[in-house]
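Hey, I'm writing a tutorial for new members on how sequence and structure tokens pair up, and I'd like a real worked example in the thread rather than a made-up one. If someone can provide the structure for the chain below, I'll link this post from the tutorial.
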Amino acid sequence: MFDRNYKTTDKADWHGRVDSMDNFDAFRWHQWVEYMDLRRDDLSPYSNKLGFAFIGYCCDEGVNRNKGRIGAAYGPQSIRKELSNLPCTFTKEVKLFDAGDILCENITLEESQSLLSKAIEKILSLNLFPIVLGGGHEIAFGNYNGVLNFLRRSNDKPKIGIINFDAHLDLRPYPNGGSSGTMFRQIADICENKAINYSYFCIGVQKHSNTIELFKTADRLGVNYILAKDIIDIDNWGMLETLDTFIKPQEHIYITICSDVFSTAYAPGVSASQPLGLDPERVLKFLKYILKSNKVVSFDIAEVAPRFDQDNVTANLASVIIFSVVNTLAQINNLAV
């Protein structure tokens, strides 16, 4: 399956402070993570209560095609560094696996997205929850297809709701191939071709970052979206009701976060800098609420670009968001400490 452009993680990427060698209550993630090679044929589904698999998508060719600032290909390594020192605030029944990286080297963007989709499908088949570290936001096309291919094993027409926290709608046409600005248009076309319901909700859209044609496309495709400025004015209950309306008819939810949904004050190291943006604290509230629906099947965070970061602020924010994903799902399964 992964004869090239896949590599297992260098264990040196996971290192940090050690407060104890035998007291799990003092453990940090770098002491608990296990390493997985998706090329192995003897992997069997995880039988314990809750397991996560991190996989990096070391690619920003989609950003390059989209004329953005490249550098997010190195995002997975910077995020792992920040994840390493997070505390284990869950029981030993929660397992963390690192499933390595998909590389976009000497292959096309489309080939790398296909590899990612196969990796996601494999992770889901192992009864693990995928957490994908980006990488450009073209990550979403690979992640969605992996989820779709896995779910279609048991249901030819699964209802998958996409929730995207993003300043951009990413609904551009793609006559010359996909990019980091076309994924959700590509997914809409896949859904149409397969007669599958297309459900897409974009949260945090910036009016100054999208053309009128993109908003018309969103309306034509039945896309749900809410502008960043309207989130500032809406109270939490109003937003949660909006989320409920979207989540209720879905069988499964796929969550993707583009780091440019946040202001540069919180996330300077992104492919498309954003002077305005959402407050991470509010996003975390919404994220936790979505996760508590118990319908979320996969998650990714994209466009962390270390070359533009300041004091690893953006990578650190990504790690805090991932920490919330892991611990919220642990709480749902009564595995949080």
